[in-house]
Write a structure and sequence with these properties.
This protein is of the alpha/beta class. It has a domain at about 5-245: Carbamate kinase (3-Layer(aba) Sandwich). Helices cover about 35% and strands about 25% of the residues. It has 13 helices and 20 strands. The radius of gyration is 23 Å and the shape is globular. The mean pLDDT is about 90.
């Protein structure tokens, strides 16, 4: 008997029929002889609806109370799913994140999991029950307040529970049949991948791919938990995310390009007229880091000899843009830069593949494809297995299509199916 952790996204349980369909799938897994622990997201767009409600009530809702409100969505899902399973003749027990032993720090809205003590889950499984856990939430180790894990937090909950329970596999159910070479919502010709390395999936997730949350992949890799991404609408085999699928002797060669991710949620800040002196860049990014803002791409221009000044551009989440501007404005005089420019009409595309290490010419092919599609590149960032470029937001989809075709990733087996349409 194996232990399987299954996670169902909001699109899979968007309505009563979806909940019943998911319940049937869970029961079938249990009837096949497996122990089953389920992590469930809020139904459909209910989290967004709760956020809208909070913003109508208060322009700046207290973070603690907002977390208390938002976790209601998953509690509804877990309860109705347990009811649907009971109606099929199986015993199910639902648990909130705190009841499941998900212990976090006290950072409301984007808490990090510190530990998982799944005593009650283990007891339920040993009693032969199906355990259902509300994703996206936990309880602070210090304040004992309810916390949320941020967007994609249910993926992280599932991987953390799988690690704590020593599950054989963590299945992530969504509204597409697996991980594709690009987002099938904008590129129906995208091809489904049978296997992806954790390293590649980490870069895909960090670069905007919505299929898995970054922290989920980090957890799975750290604890050696295989991830299986598949659709809750079909029985098709999905995509396995494993640590080293291309090891010598596996019979698999690393693909030159595994996939293309895109992201329209970033903004660009250019700090203009920075004195070209040692420590000035450190001062800028220390101020930003102290505000809890994560930076993605950074470009510094060569200083103008006549003035001794340079410009530094960087990208960051749009949601952190106003805070970053405020923070930098406060240190403008101290650092001595002249001005700041803010641009939230950008898009980022990343081409990712473990085979880049041994295949030259990837950047040249990418830049040629962009030029042929009449797309201007504003920023470039690279790693061993990734090349990222920033374009205008309204050119991003065209950039994805051009790169996808240039690297021969288009499917020959028909268009990809998006069952639910939301990507979760």
């Amino acid at each position: 008997m194996s232990l399987i952790v299954q996670k169902y996204g909001g699109s899979s349980v968007a309505d009563a029929e979806g909940v019943k369909r998911v319940a049937r799938r869970i029961v079938q897994t249990k009837q096949a002889g497996h122990d089953v622990c389920v992590v469930v997201s809020a139904m459909g767009d209910s989290t967004d609806d709760l956020i809208d409600l909070a913003n109508k009530v208060s322009p700046a809702p207290p973070a603690r109370e907002l977390d208390m409100l938002l976790t209601a969505g998953e509690r509804i899902s877990m309860a109705v799913l347990a009811m649907a399973i009971a109606d099929l003749g199986m015993e199910a027990r639902s648990f909130t994140g705190s009841q499941a032993g998900v212990i976090t720090d006290a950072d409301h809205g984007k808490a990090r999991i510190l530990d998982v003590t799944p005593g009650r889950i283990t007891q339920a499984l040993e009693a032969g029950h199906i355990a259902i856990v509300a994703g996206f939430q936990g309880v602070s180790q210090t304040t004992k307040d309810i916390t949320t894990l941020g967007r994609g937090g249910s993926d992280t909950t599932a991987a953390a529970l799988a690690a704590a329970l020593r599950a054989d596999v963590c299945e992530i159910y969504t509204d597409v049949d697996g991980v594709f070479t690009a987002d099938p919502r904008i590129l129906p010709s995208a091809r489904k991948l049978d296997v992806v390395s954790c390293e590649e999936m980490l870069d895909l997730a960090a670069s905007g791919s919505k299929i898995l949350h970054l922290r989920c992949v980090e957890y799975a890799r750290r604890y050696g938990i295989p991830l299986h991404v598949r659709s809750s609408w079909s029985k098709h085999p999905g995509t396995f995310i494993v640590d080293n699928p291309y090891d010598e002797g596996s019979g698999m060669e690393a693909p030159i390009i595994t996939g293309i991710a895109h992201d329209v949620s970033e903004a660009k800040i250019t700090v203009v007229g920075v004195p070209d002196e040692k420590g000035k860049a450190a001062d800028i990014f220390t101020a930003v880091a102290d505000a809890g803002i994560s930076i993605d791409m950074i470009v510094q221009n060569v200083s103008v000899a006549a003035t001794g000044l340079t410009d530094i551009s960087f990208t960051l989440p749009q949601s952190d843009g106003p805070k970053a501007i405020q923070v930098l404005q406060a240190v403008k005089t101290t650092i001595g830069f002249a001005d700041m420019l803010y641009d939230d009409k950008i898009g980022k595309m990343s081409v990712i593949g473990a085979g880049m290490r041994t295949n030259p010419g990837i950047s040249a092919k990418l830049f040629r494809a962009m030029a042929d599609a009449d797309i201007n590149i504003e920023m470039i960032s690279t790693s061993e297995i990734r090349v990222s470029v920033v374009t205008r937001a309204d050119q991003l989809e065209a950039a994805v299509r051009a790169a996808h075709t240039a690297f021969g990733l288009d499917s020959t087996e028909g268009e990809a199916i998006v069952y639910g349409g939301t990507g979760r």
